[in-house]
Amino acid sequence: MVKLGVSDLRIRYGGVTALEGVNFDIHEHEIFGIIGPANAGKTSFLKAVNRMDMFDPAMKVDGKIVFNNVDVSRIRNVYGLRRRIGVVFPLPVGLPLSVYDNVALSPRLGGQKNKAELDVIVERCLTRAALWDEVKDRLDSLGSMLSGGQQQRLTIARALSQEPELLMLDEFSIAVDPVTTMRIEDVLKELRSEITIILVTNLVQQARRLADRTAFFLEGQCVEVGVTEDLFTGEVKDQRTRDYVEGRFG
Amino acid sequence: MDNSASKVPASIDASFDQLNRDWYIDKAVQILVFLGGISAVVFIIGIFVFISKEGFGFLVGEFNFKEFFFSPNWRPTSESKETFGILALIAGTASVTGLAMLIAIPFSLGTAIFIAEFSSGKTREFLKITVELLAAIPSVVWGFIGLAIMNPIIIKTFNVPVGLNVLNAGVILGLMAAPIMTSIAEDALKAVPDRYREAAEAMGATRWQVIYKVVLPAAKNGLLGAVLLGVGRGFGETMAVLMATGHSINIPTSVFDSVRALTATIAAELGETAAGSPHYQALFTIGIFLFIVTFIINLVADLVVRGVRKG
Amino acid sequence: MFEATRLNRKNETRQKLFRLGLGAMTGLLILPVVLILSTLIYKGAPVISFEFLFTGPTKGMTAGGIFPALLGTILLVMVALIASVPLGIAAAIYLSEYASDNWFTRAINLAIINLAGVPSIVHALFGVGAFVIFFKFGTSILAASLTLAIMTLPVVIVATRESLQAVPMAFREACWNMGATRWQTIRRVVLPNAVTGILTGVILEVSRTAGETAPIMFTGAAFFLPLLPQGVFDQTMALSLHLFVVSTQVPGMPEHLPFGVALVLISMVLLMNSLSIALRMYLRGKKKW
Known about the structure:
The complex is a heterotrimer. Chain B is mainly alpha-helical.
């Protein structure tokens, strides 16, 4: 089942092309990795998927992105789209609400008012984000005053609280220590059976550990897409992929 | 949109793409705040429209450009021939504003430099708060001060018969305008990046050389804006000037002469006119003139000050 | 080698003189005002008493109290707030959260600056032409308050906009990414963090409105009224106008009475401003991010 279909995607900022030639389908229940050096267009891709390009007047998206068989550029209720897609960006953001309210925000926006059910959701999401043990006794404290690593896990918890169908993580491990990264990677592997995951990372080994298939973006181009293991064992369609994966640049 | 706690994922469906209550509320808010946003424009246009409407009769009737602007004879209630010359009133406003600026500009600049460059911490905080409080004193209180305190002082010190004159109103207006000008000037000085000062100091310049040769020229747009704002304030000030200038309508030849300002004339005479009479309409016409002049001053000041933030 | 040379010493002295000179200028600016205020207190304090504040004028205004004027000012301020605060907050939300940087936004900003810069007597003329005559409210609290509201609208708009813009963009983006609408984001994250700033602006507006005289002179405030106002279509007395009247329009006024009125008015205004400043300083200490 195709969860996200991308065809002939091109993203420009003003006159500069940031990304082009992107063609692939992402299947339900897979972890799809996107690797590549900085400024390759990976983050722009994510922004186009959940229509955050609306907030940037300079950003122009051509081509087609289809989510659940709906063309995202033709969508009427863009908020509904974003509710179904959770995003975690590299910069941690703890909202200036209590930790509890941070995670309860999305369910509340969806109409959930029952305190007992909210409690369950909050605990589940914080546990999956590997943050529950550290904050369970101070759910009232301000999310924006937590440490960087905690705020990043809070951001992940918030994304999970949306019960998203598609979870997009953009270099989530930058602000998180290696042990916690491992814990979250385990959670992602568990979640795969429930949702679809796009994992943008510049840690190629992380892609190898987690992603079923991986795309390699370089300098605004989608160079190739393939089964992850193939890319790492040298069965690549493009030599540059092999060079990147083997650490010869990036 | 279904956000239940079940773990079974929604199947590939488009049920999320529905216009729901949140969507409509968001659109409604967007319209409401937009209306709020344009309200300021609506009001400014409205002000111009309504004062023009009331003054219109005079403009198409007895208005004579040469007489209005160049005759010092403002005699709207004369029984023989009514004249509507505002030259003396302009002179009144100009002389008082001019004197006020003569006092306010150096003092507000000096104070702004002192606060921005020579004080820090608690002193700075204290001075800034004091300036802010001074700026808050209402103009009718200033007018009262001119009447009750400055008046006797002037009479005694300079041995003149009347203390309600250009000097009185000029000093009062200067004290009124200075705090605001100080605030804006201080902002302009603070906006000059520290690295300018550091570069100059590294070359061996003393404190006052740094200020005189580097900071002041760099801040000149903002400082000019402060001056313009002060002039605009002086031009438009009503109550203080009404109470402190006396009531003679003439072109002043010395600071001890009583004068009448444009704003004060409207305030003093509007209550005694019949709605729709030429006198009434002439007063509204003065209002139109005041509106246009202060509009231009504010426009120029804003353009000039914005040059600061861009540069 | 590092001993101060003659030139160094000369520069240092010049510098000290310079600093002293500027400090003296600052003092010279502040000192007269302090003296004036002290005179106000000295001459006005004897007049202040419970009767002064809570009874009305007697003997042709040469004696008695200022209660109707005090009440009138409070009424005018309240109605003006009701009219201007919601509108001002809406305008500020538009400018901070929705408007893009184009000519239209610049026009709005220019209009706001001009609203604040138009002479108060021109606001009075507008009030007469629009509210008293065109909308047929007559000289009334309603006409006067609406005139005041339009005049002080910029204060609320600017204070609100600044406190909204102080909220970092990252918070909004995090909410939008979750599918929150703009309004949901504003309501749950942005506005709650701007409330104190908005309050500062409102207090400032109260202080400005209470002190204005010209805009209410011909739109609803009267020199002397035998009865207290019963509704918004009645006229009212007002403290600021009262000061003008007792210092210029009444013969035989004992010297201290106007000082008392001035003292009450200026105390009200300075108190409100100090409250606003205190609130701002409190805000600076309470960091939430």
